[in-house]
Design brief:
Largest sheet: 7 strands, mixed
CATH topology: Spore Coat Polysaccharide Biosynthesis Protein SpsA, Chain A
Number of helices: 10
Oligomer: single chain
Strand order of the largest sheet: 2-1-3-7-5-8-6
Distance between the termini: 48 Å
Length: about 280
């Protein structure tokens, strides 16, 4: 069973399109992953912002047209793809045909202001060894009901889940789109209507060179900090090397570079001037 891939890209974001298309081509995935024109909020009644509505409609439209006989890979156009993705993803999906999950997140956002989940993930990655090693293969799937936070920049939908997921999304639409795309997925997972797994470490991170196109996601620095934290757990040699260098530049004597990296991100957040970081009064 093969997979079909789509990446969601707004017409007014050609730079993202070209960057991701080049990365897909370099990884040999351009033949099975194609662009899907993203949608904007169209004025219909919704309890979310116009940009959040556009995001919801884009993901929903992708899944409405997804083939029913194969896995569907969905990427957002700021996705950062690990070099191991084309090699590891098929290996993960082959046994997954018989596993009881509906959606597999290939990466997710981790709040940098929540120390306990961060501590667990850092310890887990250290126990696995060097996640940036070219031959790294010790991926495992965490229970989404316990571990999914938010983030839909890279995920796979099981073909058998497509009809049910489509019906559930139509119900949310009929109720006026009460939550964002990420929030909708989180609600369905917590209610037990959607069985999710979260891959760890990640095969998809976030390109830190782009701002979020979703209003309400905070200013550039805040979005960038979230993205950098995602990439801390990206199983990619180049990214791990880059982040390690940043951490040791911040704290040259650190014996735990990942902990030093989180400290650096926290420092950047707390030391940001008011026009870069979020206000304490909003």
């Amino acid at each position: 069973m093969l997979f079909n891939g789509f990446y969601i890209n707004l017409d007014e974001s050609p730079a993202r399109h070209h960057a991701l298309q080049a990365r897909l081509k370099a990884l040999g995935l351009d033949g099975m992953t194609r662009r899907f024109a993203g949608q904007r909020g169209d004025g219909r009644a919704a309890r979310i912002s116009a940009s959040q509505l556009g995001c919801f409609l884009s993901h929903q439209a992708v899944l409405e047209q997804a083939p029913a006989d194969r896995f569907t890979l969905v990427l957002e156009d700021d996705a950062a793809l690990a070099a191991a993705l084309p090699r590891r993803l098929p290996a993960l999906l082959e046994p997954a045909q018989a596993q009881p999950w509906d959606i597999l997140f290939l990466g997710q956002t981790v709040p940098y202001d929540s120390i306990h989940p961060l501590d667990r993930l850092i310890k887990a990655s250290q126990e696995l060894g060097d996640i940036g090693a070219p031959d790294f293969a010790r991926f495992f799937m965490m229970d989404g009901a316990m571990h999914y936070v938010w983030g839909a920049f890279g995920y796979v939908v099981h073909p058998r889940a497509l009809p049910r997921l489509r019906a559930l999304l139509r119900q949310f639409a009929a109720h006026g789109y009460p939550t964002s795309w990420d929030g909708t997925l989180a609600t369905l997972i917590k209610q037990g209507q959607l069985t999710a797994r979260c891959l760890f470490p990640y095969l998809v991170g976030v390109d830190t060179g782009h701002d979020s196109t979703i209003s309400g996601r905070g200013p550039h620095l805040q979005h960038q900090l979230h993205a950098l934290l995602v990439n801390l757990f990206l199983a990619d040699a180049d990214e791990q090397q880059r982040l390690r260098a940043q951490a040791l530049a911040f704290c040259p004597s650190a014996t735990d570079w990942q902990a030093a990296y989180v400290s650096w991100l926290t420092y950047r957040k707390l030391s940001a001037p008011p026009d870069e970081g979020s206000s304490a009064f909003t």
